[in-house]
Amino acid sequence: MNPVVHFELPYEDRDRAAKFYQDAFGWEPQKLGPEMGNYVVVSTSETDPATHMIKEPGRINGGLYKRSKDSQAPSVVVAVDDIQEAMKKVAAAGGKVLGGSKDDGQPDEIPGIGLYCAIIDSEGNRMSMLQPKGM
Q1: Confidence class of residue 72 from pLDDT cuts 50, 70 and 90?
Q2: Does position 95 have pLDDT exceeding 90, yes or no?
Q3: Whether 123 contacts 40, CB under 8 Å
Q4: Does 6-66 match 77-132 in CATH topology?
Q5: Residue 38 DSSP class
Q6: 3-class secondary-structure state, position 6
Q7: What is the torsion angle, in degrees rounded to the nearest 10, for the CA atoms of residue 44, residue 14, residue 64 and residue 88?
Q8: In sequence order, what are the residues at sequence separation of 6 or more whose Cβ sits closer than 8 angstroms to the Cβ of residue 134?
Q9: Beta-carbon count within 10 A of 54 CB
Q10: DSSP helix/strand/coil, 18
Q11: Secondary structure (H, E, C), 78-110
Q12: Nearest-angstrom CA–CA distance, 93 and 14
């Protein structure tokens, strides 16, 4: 079985995208230079400085790259402790809250799973947030 170990999202404006993810989710961006395609590595979880590997199994980090006409954006889900608070942070950081299946700005309850909400980030990427049941 091949586990998910990284994700990538395209950006239109590198600084705006890095700031959005830092402000909305607390991710730590590391902007690389032109020799690395102006890629932005984003740390979403604590990493061991010696090995550069995630300390807690089951978590992943990712990256942001310059959007091109051939770019394809993946679908990712971000786990949050409080979906209502996360929705406010997304809006304050320049994103748009779509909501659940009705796109009415309110999360859906997925029975046995938790609360789910779709958003659009500062770069026009559609993604989702989940407050797992019990949080």
Answers
A1: low
A2: yes
A3: no
A4: yes
A5: T
A6: strand
A7: 50
A8: 114
A9: 17
A10: helix
A11: EECCCHHHHHHHHHHCCCEEEECCCCCCCCEEE
A12: 14
pLDDT of residue 57: 86
Torsions phi, psi for 71 (to 5 deg): -65, 145
Better-scored residue on pLDDT, 13 or 133:
13
Class of 6-66 in CATH: alpha beta
Cβ atoms of residues 61 and 43 within 8 Å: yes
Per-residue model confidence as pLDDT tens digits over 12-35: 999 999 999 999 999 999 999 998
Rounded to the nearest angstrom, the gap between the alpha carbon of residue 125 and the centroid of all alpha carbons in its chain is 10
Q: In whole angstroms, how far apart are CA 31 and each of 54, 61, 98, 108?
A: 19, 14, 29, 35
| Domain boundary assignment for the chain | 6-66, 77-132
Q: What is the DSSP letter of 35?
A: G
pLDDT confidence tier of residue 99, bands split at 50, 70 and 90:
confident
Architecture of domain 77-132 in this structure: Roll (3.10)
Note the residue count of the chain.
135
